[in-house]
Amino acid sequence: MDHDEIRVAIVDDQAMVRAGFGALLNAQEGITVVGDGSDGAEAVELVTRTRPDVVLMDIRMPEVDGIEATRRIAALEDVEPRIIILTTFDLDSYVFQALRAGASGFLLKDAPAADLIHAVRVVAGGDALLSPSITRSVIAEFVSQPARAHADAARFRELTDRELAVAKLVARGLSNAEIAAELVLAEQTVKTHVSRVLMKLGLRDRTQIVVAAYEGGLIVVGS
Predict the structure, then answer these.
(1) Which residue ranges does the record assign to the HTH luxR-type domain (predicted)?
(2) Which bin fits 184, alpha (ψ -120 to 50), beta or left (φ > 0)?
(3) How many domains does the chain have?
(4) Which domain range does residue 181 map to?
(5) 58-87, pLDDT tens digit by residue?
């Protein structure tokens, strides 16, 4: 993704939001908006047709909402866009559900323009979490609720010791470069380990590693 153009799709039930975000992103070097839609059903069709790298997805929409649309897009076999959820509340069960469903991160709708542009680039790059501390706090908030039992941690037994160490650092919000420094490895080696963790655990991206690590008890809330 470093040198390629980032293709973005925008899905929001407010036309002015779509137009505003579209104009902003199209004005950036290396970013092109390839289409937009007004609800979750349109989002799935849009992704299938335009094959974007990143989808900006409103979370609350009539008919098919952003969570269900994220779930459907994550289930598509031949396209794997990164999804950024757009929301008005950060500590929100909807946001947690969207992250669980396959979203790569979330952004407040009233965030500064620079944050939106940065978010698209970070998520497209894929080697770092978007807002690591906020992402972790949202996941921790909902995983720690008494009604939520820990998922079976057995899935982590498939990982080698090194892969497990890398997974824990990803779950703490570190980028590939930071993990490389922490474990005294080449950054490319870290990328390989992250790819293997994703493959072995059947996960889409780094955010899903964080969700799995908290739900499986690999990372303890508050640690």
Answers:
(1) 152-217
(2) left
(3) 2
(4) 142-215
(5) 998 988 999 999 999 999 988 999 999 999
Same domain, 44 and 116: yes
Q: What is the CATH number of the domain that holds 154?
A: 1.10.10.10
Q: Which helix (H) or strand (E) holds 7?
A: strand 6-11
pTM for the complete prediction?
0.91
Q: How far is CA 31 from CA 23, 51, 60, 110, 117, in A?
A: 11, 14, 25, 20, 9
Selection from 36, 30, 32, 33 nearest residue 16 by Cα: 36
- Phi/psi at 122 (5° precision): -65, -50
CATH of the domain at 21: 3.40.50.2300
| Cα–Cα separations (whole angstroms), residue 26 to 33, 46, 56, 64, 179 | 6, 18, 14, 27, 33
Same domain, 70 and 108: yes
Tell me the DSSP string of 77-137. Answer: SS---EEEEEES-SS-HHHHHHHHHT--EEEETTS-HHHHHHHHHHHHH-SS-SSHHHHHH
Residues 110 and 74: beta-carbon distance below 8 Å:
no
pLDDT in tens, 133-173: 889 989 988 887 655 555 566 789 999 999 999 999 999 99
On whether both 11 and 58 belong to a single domain, the answer is: yes
